[in-house]
Specification:
Rossmann fold; Glycosyltransferase involved in cell wall bisynthesis; single chain; alpha/beta; glycosyltransferase activity; Glyco_trans_4-like_N; transferase
């Protein structure tokens, strides 16, 4: 199957869907290409936090081979870094599609202007066009911004007009599906969930013994629940379990005030906290494999599956974004109620049989969300749509 992905940002150094899905589709012997900009995502503080991992944000135009995928980098006509809006040269994208002649065009982003080029190509080739979606009503509150509402209104009309040429929509979560139906009026029958995957070796369980390391990675901001996670582990420490607790925190702080607050709390804790900057995946995976329990109890993160795939049992906050990873609520902790969360974890430590069973079920679940499995699912989805 010939597949072309169109994404605003393709970052070889980070295991995002835009990168991992094409790579693993190529491993299935698909003929895969990627059309993207000649730049990386405009993370805040890019040059302070990300350059050492990814290099310069602005790359070179041109094409090259990366892990069995053909990558085509184009200079965008327009980029607004503050809102991550990119407009690729649409006629160049269209001409590239004609040259590549894929049977499937996978556009990353329901608000991508490249949808127009993909649909134009589909009208001349009978190719299938799929549009994925990572947004939801939590991470993209379009109602609160006039510019966002205008953008939504434009694309709502566009999706309606182009509906006959867009084969299907592939939101990554149920929350994203809800957003597509509410904000862009996408019919439910055109939607198929395609979750994010996890990168790593075949999952193995990091056995929970006397020394227990908790872990979190990503942005260290108030909404991520890191402060509450630290307090929960302190609550466990206060209950005098026969364990030596520690906490590995990987990432960068969002602002100086919150950083000061977290560091002040850390100084008062009765267990060790290891702080690391952003790391490349190989180094991060090593920390995951040295840990036992992941704590992503605030807003959702791409790192949850990776941590679980590396052998940790991962506790998360209640959200439709990550409901498929919650094991019917057994892996949910309430960041708003530290005491209840301490009790929930404490009960597991007091019932080793129940804890071991939960760890086993967690690993069985994450086996369904490796990138290898998600790539297989994506190809089946492409094939099943007529």
């Amino acid at each position: 199957m010939k597949i072309t992905h169109i994404t605003n940002y393709f970052m070889e150094g980070l295991n995002y869907q835009d990168t991992e899905l094409p790579i693993h589709q190529a491993e299935l012997k698909c003929d895969v290409s990627v059309i993207t900009s000649e730049r990386y995502y405009p993370f805040p503080n890019y040059y302070a936090s990300y350059k050492k991992i990814l290099g310069d944000r602005i790359r070179e135009e041109g094409n090259y081979r990366f892990k069995s995928c053909d990558i085509f980098r184009l200079k965008p006509r327009f980029e607004r870094s503050s809102s991550s809006i990119v407009i690729l040269p649409l006629f160049r994208v269209f001409n590239l599609l004609r040259k590549l002649s894929p049977k499937v065009v996978h556009v990353h982003g329901e608000l991508s202007f490249s949808i127009f080029a993909a649909v134009l190509y589909a009208t001349t080739s009978n190719a299938k066009v799929f549009v994925d979606c990572h947004a939801d009503n939590v991470n993209f509150n379009y109602k609160s911004s006039r510019n966002a509402r205008i953008l939504i209104n434009i694309f709502s009309v566009a999706h309606k007009l182009l509906s006959s040429k867009i084969t299907g929509y592939l939101p990554i979560t149920q929350a994203s599906s809800d957003y597509l139906q509410e904000a862009l009026k996408i019919p439910k029958e055109k939607i198929t969930l395609l979750p994010l995957g996890a990168k790593g070796k075949q999952p193995v369980v990091n056995e929970i013994a006397r020394d227990i390391a908790f872990v979190y990675s990503g942005k260290i901001t108030r909404e991520k629940g890191v402060l509450e996670a630290l307090k929960i582990v302190q609550g466990l420490t206060n209950r005098n379990f026969p364990h030596n607790f520690s906490f590995n925190v990987v990432g960068e702080f969002g602002d100086a005030t919150f950083k000061s607050e977290v560091l002040d709390v850390i100084q008062k804790l009765d267990y060790k906290v290891n702080l690391y900057p952003f790391l490349n995946f190989e180094k991060l995976e090593k920390i995951y494999r040295q840990s036992h329990i992941g704590m992503w109890i605030g807003t959702a993160s791409n790192s949850i599956q990776d941590c679980a795939c590396a052998g940790c049992i991962v506790f998360i906050g209640k959200s439709r974004t990550t409901s498929h990873l919650a094991l019917d609520g057994e892996l949910i902790l309430d960041a708003g109620n530290v005491e209840d969360s301490v009790n929930k974890l404490g009960n597991l430590f007091e019932n080793r049989e129940k804890l071991d069973s939960l760890v086993k079920r967690s690993q069985e679940m994450i086996n369904r969300y490796t990138w290898e499995e998600i790539a297989k699912t994506s190809v089946k989805v492409y094939q099943n749509y007529e």
